[in-house]
Amino acid sequence: MMKYAIRYYTKSNHTKQLADCIAEVLDIEALDITHPLVEDVEVLFFGSSVYGNSVDPEVRDYIFAIDVNVSRMVCFGTAGVMESSYDEVRSLADLKDIPVDEREFHCKGEFVSMNRGKPDESDLDELRSFVRNVM
Ligand SMILES: Cc1cc2nc3c(=O)[nH]c(=O)nc-3n(C[C@H](O)[C@H](O)[C@H](O)COP(=O)(O)O)c2cc1C
Question: Does 133 fall in a domain?
Fold first, then answer.
């Protein structure tokens, strides 16, 4: 069983920045969701952001297609203005009986002229502490 895995979806690399930061802390590779999980995993760090008030359909498809055992999913992501995609991801994971950690990491992501430079270094610092807490 893999102890940790990181998967993410991104359109403009904000979620990738978070995923790569988690990867550094865990010393594993962060992969996008073109990479299926190939073995059971203890903690899946799962990154997704908000587009048109929802996750991208590819994120939905990815969760539905998970066919290994995931003991716990930890969500992370960004959004321009919305809270986060946590609730939506959690309902999708529920359908697959994948337990989702109550704790999530969310920060703002640059969107049109809002949140310039986000996520930024202070977001990544917070993320590093978050990861150490949930791992
Ligand atoms: C096509 C598109 C639609 C978006 N729709 C929303 C939205 O409905 N609500 C919101 O809060 N942010 C919205 N955003 C902003 C993104 O959530 C934000 O830029 C996020 O950081 C993108 O992450 P990514 O670079 O990992 O894809 C949208 C961004 C794009 C590109």
Answer: no
- What number is the average pLDDT over the span 72-84? 96
- Is 54 close to ligand 1, i.e. is its CB under 6 Å away? no
CB 42, CB 2: distance < 8 Å: yes
**% helix, strand, coil for the chain, step of 5:** 35, 25, 40
Q: Determine, yes or no, domain membership for 134.
A: no
50 touches ligand 1 (CB under 6 Å): yes
Q: Which protein residue's CA is at the shortest distance from atom 30 of ligand 1?
A: 51
* Structural domain of 17: 2-128
Q: According to the model, what pLDDT value does residue 6 have?
A: 98
Tally the domains of the chain: 1
pTM for this model (two decimals): 0.98
